[in-house]
Give the backbone structure.
Amino acid sequence: MRKLPLIIRREYLAKVRNKSFIIMTFLSPILMVGMILLIVYLTKVNDSEKRIIAVLNESSFFTDNFQTNESTSYIKFKDLSLEQAKDSTVGLGYYGLLYIPDFPNLEGTAQRSNLYTKEAPNTSVVNTIEYIFQEKLRQQRLIDIGVSETDYNSMKDRFEIRMSTFEGQQNLKGVNIMKAVIGGGFGYLIMMFIIIYGGFVMRSVIEEKTSRIIEVIISSVKPFQLMLGKIIGTSLAGITQFAIWIVSAGLLLTIAVLLFDVDLQAVSASANLPSDAMTDLATITPNNEKAQQFVGEMLKIHWVTLISSFLVYFILGYLIYSSIYAAIGAAVDNETDTQQFIFPIILPLMLAIYVGFFSVFENPHGPIAVGFSLFPLTSPIVMLMRLPGGIGDGGVPLWQFITSIVLLIVTFVGIVWLAAKIYRVGILMYGKKPTYKELYKWLKY
Amino acid sequence: MSNILVAKEVTKKFGDYVALQNVSLAIPKNSIYGLLGPNGAGKTTLIRIINQITHPDTGSVFFDGEPLQPHHISMIGYLPEERGLYKSMKVGEQALYLAQLKGLSKSEAKKRLKFWFDRFEIGDWWNKKIQELSKGMAQKIQFIVTVLHRPKLLIFDEPFSGFDPINANIIKEEIIKLKEEGASIIFSTHRMESVEELCEYIALLHESEKILDGKLIDIKKAYKNNVFDIGLETANGEVLMQELNEKFQLNKSDYNVSEKQLNFTVQLPSNDTHQILTYLSSIGIVNNFMERIPTASDIFIKTVQSKETHA
């Protein structure tokens, strides 16, 4: 086993020194941050167009309601007929003309008002104008029924039901989703890691086959050692890359935020994070007491459990999948032949992610969530999504956690054993396009 | 113990396909041993068993008197038929890596590599990548890597494929030198003529079975059939042919007469050449008298044919 570190070292260096690997490592964070900046910038550009709307107001109900704001300027037309006003609007190149006729009552005025534009107007313009009318109408109605503005505002509070467990722990709205997002993040990380670096393992095996060095190597070391060294070396390279990504993306993002004054919330929203969580967060932030509770809840997450089980699931899950990738690499002569074998591997991973997002977020302890968090090919991802709730006592029942780990270990041993057999035979087979039947035969050699 | 490697009744199957059937071999120490046979005869499978890449279904293999064990790997050097190197790795680094896998320490490997690189005058290749080298150059590196850990047993599977004649010769000489230094060598090839002159011992494999093995001289002796090529300087060749025809059994299709020179082939009833030599010397000057020794491939074909007729 003295040779294993040698193999790991070579595989690691071979990967890390690879030019495209280096480029990917340093370019990806720049690309990612650049992309975010671009999205932010484009969103701003899209909105920054200043619109001028002419207002021809013949009524006495609306006087100073149309205030110029960041995106829209209102210009008052006076002593013009509607037709003249239209002509002027077009002539001056304004965005549109809001016509408010003279009518004895507000409702009638509102109903007879009209917004003239060249094309169908921008939604946000329409929304703003409609909002102004609605507010005016509401105020009028309040006056009609004799309720003062302050009285009305005091009624306006939204109601939120208090939630707690039977033990009296307070449940906070949004916390469950936040927890799921954290677990989902870990699960997603595992999936990405498996797909990227499992593929690296596979290509590295294919390279050894096509360069015909494989037989030279395995006359010195056991195929299993080589496979293990390759998997470990590649994953260390992967961890290095991930670490560089996280650190440099974090740095770049901080710099970008400071330099360009980017609104992070807008970024997250445009990055398509679950919007519920974001709005919940947003509603919480202004409320200091709730924010404290929220932070308290976050601190209550069993981070030690979560992170240590992340490591366990990550290592076992990754080893299972990457040994399958290694076996595939050994079975084929070139990368184009891998397609038929890759799909069945990706399938459970995708399934785990989708089941996670659609089912586990909704109901972390429902039958689907439980089933998939026990099934060894999906458990590394799905179980992690459930785990931020803790183990036992309102979280994942202990027996489920243990069963899932045991199943995972058993599968790990079984799969690695099978993969090593296929690998051992496959690396010395040339010029054969393997079928599943062929692979099954190899298991018996 | 005079044998470096002994295989006893080795059988290996891949599914329904029998790759080796009860093959027994003994490879004497400090010899060059030819493992000959056409493609698919089972040579590579046998070699892979010796290298512990695969394991026999039944039968056993002994290395230097001990049952074959993982630690023997470091005493074997193997140049496979399907050979190559990491293309994007530097020559020196790669050679160091492979040497360390064979159990050498880094400093020792470096020292020995320097020796070999100087010997082949390729010191300036150290920092080149394999993909920058020609095929023949890469093969030299491969050879160095195979012998660097000074193995007791060297196995070359189709050693000269991929070498141009000049480099093939260099390698041939190096191999002979290694043998003189005490190594035992196995040559495996389907091109029997390429190693025949080097081998002291051979084994012929055919369709997963060993059909013949032993000392090459003995085998040749057993397979020769007293056929001689003779050249005679004489004035009247045509007349002489008639005479010879009566006295000895001549191969008629195989003679020619040019001015004063008669070349012919004769098969004698026994290995006794005294009678014919005295006769020939009395009528002219014998300038060529050579026994036709069968080549390994002659023997191979003969053995296979006789096997098939017996079967």
Notes: The mean pLDDT of chain B is 87.
